[in-house]
Write a structure and sequence with these properties.
With 60 residues, the protein is an alpha+beta fold. The protein is 23% helix and 28% strand. A hairpin with a 2-residue loop joins strand 2 and strand 3.
């Protein structure tokens, strides 16, 4: 794991949608990451992670 610290873990609302945000400061740069999920998705988060891992392994 990295030695970088997450300085804030907050939930905010964006103007267009209610989306959780993770704020991370690395050095003097602050990154704001918004998370959103498709309401029409048929795939669970676990299924998605497994699919992504399989794709990553296939690329090796």
């Amino acid at each position: 794991m990295s030695s970088e610290k997450i300085t804030k873990n907050i939930t905010t609302t964006s103007p267009a949608k209610d989306a959780p945000a993770l704020v991370k400061k690395i050095g003097r740069t602050t990154y704001i990451m918004r998370v959103h999920f498709s309401k029409t998705s048929k795939e669970t988060m676990s299924d998605k992670i497994k699919r992504m891992l399989k794709n990553e392994i296939q690329q090796m």
